[in-house]
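Risk register update: the risk of archive-format incompatibility is retired. Evidence:
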Amino acid sequence: MMRPESNGMPVFNLFVQTPRANMWYPCGSFVGDSNAKNLVEGWIGNSLGMGGMLKGQIDRSVAGTLFKEADSRRKLVKNIVAQYPALKSAQKELTFGYKIVFEGLEEAKG
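Archived output:
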């Protein structure tokens, strides 16, 4: 999977899985903006003990980015099924996840 140029911003690697398979399939990446960077840096530093709240905001931001338009999920699933035909029968049951790549995150949360 090609990684986008991050220029110091967090990279969000997207994954999908079905309820029946315990395997995550990579399905894309995107680079966050300065707001995402601030949230991730706050989460790393656990600003004022608010790490859980910041992680929740990151989750909501990722979901908002992926599904900001009414048919965004349908388009994303269509592309995923084209890439992984074995997922076609479970396309209505897909679970999405992500992993953040950002300097210092793995050491802080690892």
